[in-house]
């Protein structure tokens, strides 16, 4: 009996079915599946170039047919029928499918393939179509070993349990090796100083990275996609912590945002562990204090004189490290609008490729928006790798606004700036500007600590906030209304 004879009836011949996935007997209807050939990178490359090659064998489907074929492939992949899924999804890629449909087909096609190289090729094809595709970026991070699949979370189903009993805090104490007195960081230089015997301990000059990060632009950058795939991108410190002073044995309970503390009984200096669990992000870098208390006081007096603020009652000036997020944002924005051509408004459109380096977003909610504008005046070229010794006897806080919320604020600021500078798109005035921001990508982030001198002052019974930049000495603050402003304020109600 030849291979073409039906094994069931012995009389009929076996022919390939219309879809080519089985052989059928013309006499008795017997059907046997055809074992598909092993998949290969070569076959995947053929799929990637099918539409570009102008092949006459491109499958022609209506829009509804393509959507149905794609849905069948996704459903088969979810059900574990990888052969059926591969067949449907590969046929989608042989059609005139839209870019969004092709991206989805490549993404699910990667799930049907066992070899990492084949999975990687499929995910790279997704990013060719849509560079901001989060699932494809996460998939590549898993293949690279940068992301543990078990750490991936669904932000909508996350819960953050808080223990009623404070956790034991891991702390580092800074004491003088000569007299055992407390060591403090001095803003006039990169050293720790003993306030009793004046012993100096120089900080190592190795805080600057030897090379730039592979993500974003500059040093200390972290991969945004990886962080957002895990709990780290969506949680903030909420757990109370406790520790016992090594010197006088007094027990303390620390607020979730506290990093550094000085014992009020014996002046022992401590810096706590910045991330007590893997769900909390530690600071990646900081700008050391460079402005002394004396200089901060002098700068504040000049600011009062400049703005004619008379007889203010000023609180003590406190130096503190405040947490701030930075984001590198790029990608592609598609736009369309109307421009003036002669007497007519003509529709135009195009693509804009923005890049914003170190977009700042506050990591806590204690400062008013008017004061956080002062963050932009820091020279981030002065960043150094996080070292707890810089915090010795200086208050410092952890972030209370999670990465996910801060990234939305950063995107909002970028879009506001893009709209403000619409002339970058096309010469002349543009009306009815519409932006498609789906391609706007946050490429990287970092959590930094910035030095601030913070104070309050009272004038005519009203309390105002003021900050002094701990790196440059520039002062920002809320001010009483002048006579003219008061007049118009009352006039307008």
Radius of gyration: 31 Å
If you average the pLDDT, what whole number results?
83
Measured by DSSP, the beta-strand proportion falls in 25-35%
Portion in helices: 10-25%
Shape: elongated
By DSSP (H or I, 4+ residues per run), the number of helices equals 11
Q: Which stretches are poorly predicted, pLDDT < 50 over at least 5 residues?
A: 483-493
Number of domains: 4
Instruction: Let me know the largest β-sheet.
Output: 9 strands, mixed
Total beta-strand segments: 24
Counting helices, strands and paired strands, the structural category is: alpha+beta
What is the CA-CA span between the terminal residues?
A: 101 Å
Structure at a glance:
The protein is an alpha+beta fold and 493 residues long.
Keyword list:
single chain, about 500 residues, alpha+beta, Serine Threonine Protein Phosphatase 5, Tetratricopeptide repeat, 4 domains, 9-stranded mixed β-sheet, 3-stranded antiparallel β-sheet, 11 helices, 24 strands
Task: Characterize the structure shown.
Helix 2 (63-79) packs antiparallel against helix 3. Helices cover 25% and strands 26% of the residues. The chain is built from eleven helices and 24 strands. It folds into four domains: 1-35, no CATH class; 41-150, Serine Threonine Protein Phosphatase 5, Tetratricopeptide repeat; 167-282, no CATH class; 293-491, no CATH class. The longest helix is centred in the last third of the chain and has 18 residues, at 403-420. The chain is α+β, with helices and mostly antiparallel strands and 493 residues long. It has helices at residues 41-48, 63-79, 82-92, 99-111, 116-129, 134-143, 224-228, 293-306, 369-372, 403-420, 483-491; strands spanning 14-16, 22-25, 31-33, 167-168, 171-173, 183-186, 191-194, 200-202, 222-223, 241-244, 251-254, 260-262, 269-272, 285-286, 313-314, 318-331, 333-341, 344-352, 356-362, 384-385, 430-436, 440-459, 462-469, 475-477. Residues 483-493 have low confidence and may be disordered. The strands form six sheets. Strands 9, 14, 15, 16, 19, 20, 22, 23 and 24 form a nine-stranded mixed beta sheet that branches.
